[in-house]
Amino acid sequence: MPHSPTNPLEDVRRKVKLTEFTVENVNSTDFPGAYEGYDDSWSQEKFEEKFQIDIVSLSSAEMEFDMVGVDAAIANSIRRILLAEVPTMAIEQVAIWNNTSIIQDEVLAHRLGLIPIKADPRLFEYKPKDAETSSSDDTLKFSLKVKCTRNPGCADATDPKVLFKNHKVYTDSIQWEPIQGQDFLKEKDIGPVDKDILISTMRPGHELDLELYCVKGIGKDHAKFSPVATASYRLLPQIKLLREFHGEEAYRLQKCFSPGVIDVRETPEGKKVARVVNARKDTCSRNVFREEDLKDGVVLQRVRDHFIFCVESTGILPPDTLVCEAIQVLRGKCVKFLQELEDKSGTLETRSTFSRTRDSRSLRRWSDKSPSCPCSLWTFGPRCCQRRADLGTPMPCT
Prior knowledge:
This protein has 398 residues and is α+β, with helices and mostly antiparallel strands. Among the domains are: 8-83 and 230-243 and 275-319, Gyrase A, domain 2, CATH 3.30.1360.10; 88-226, Beta Complex (RNA Polymerase Alpha Subunit, Chain A, domain 2). Helix content is 27%, strand content 27%. It has helices spanning 8-14, 44-50, 72-84, 105-113, 160-163, 247-255, 319-367, 383-390; strands at residues 15-18, 23-24, 52-58, 62-68, 88-99, 117-118, 140-147, 149-150, 164-165, 168-170, 174-176, 191-192, 198-201, 207-217, 228-241, 262-266, 272-276, 298-313. Strands 1, 2, 3, 4, 15 and 18 form a 6-stranded antiparallel sheet that branches. A 4-stranded antiparallel sheet has the order 5-14-7-11, with helices on one face. Strands 6-12 form a two-stranded antiparallel ribbon. Helix 3 (72-84) packs across helix 7 (319-367). The chain starts with 7 loop residues before the first helix and ends in an 8-residue tail after the last helix.
């Protein structure tokens, strides 16, 4: 059935409209005074009534959820914090005792640093920048010792897997060595997230003897500390059919959208009619606007305050835990900002009080010399009248 008409002003306030060549109503307008007759002032009660989070899917690596009732600035803040400010543990220093492989030391250290390490960063502290030694509170130590040798008795073989031992070095060769005081971590299964990440390829005579040191950091300092492979959001699509599409038109309309968005169903009268079944799957490609006879019957919109979040973890922490940590970071930023505002306002109030006290003292001193002067310049301080008197300028007093 065609979509029922709605309030045009409400669409402008709440929907982003996609046209053939432009995107309209992209700016947020939910602030006081934007529209006459609408009370858009912010309040805690209205926010709690509108705000909601619905988890659509959740696994150990990926999470999709809807965040409804917030401004794009809040949604984007959570996304950016997920990428850059939720801490993790990553390899920061590599002590290379022996490396006779074909990979240069610098390249090898860089590859090792990008390996996700499964260790809960909440159990560790940030290592001080001026620290000369490592401690159990801020560092994890790993070792990597692998030597490639020829497999005896396989002279006729041509497959490197048969000819050589340890010809490929994977992350399962990285071994955790607890530092004194880290016995309580033995149950945490600390090590690389994936055991099959290729580090290097070797041949007989090649050897790796390394010590790896992990520290706590954030993605803002280096991408290796980022806890997510990707974190993104998009607005909820909304598709309105202004008229019915039958037969061949219905099938053409279906092909203009992603699979699962439009379905062609048979009515009791035996007609094939297009229906919107799941607008959420739409990628808003706007292919329908290429069809001259179809584009006037479709309206493409997106709900301005309905965000579809997709978070893919690197495996260090579950994605739902990462989202909670991001919200905690955002909350800490707000608390710090409010505290700085309070401190700043207190400083300004102190300065203002001091200034008023100083002027009043000055006023009393000059009032002893000109006790009956009602000059309006006294509002700017008694020095104005005294300076005029010193220069022989007539007073504006009456």
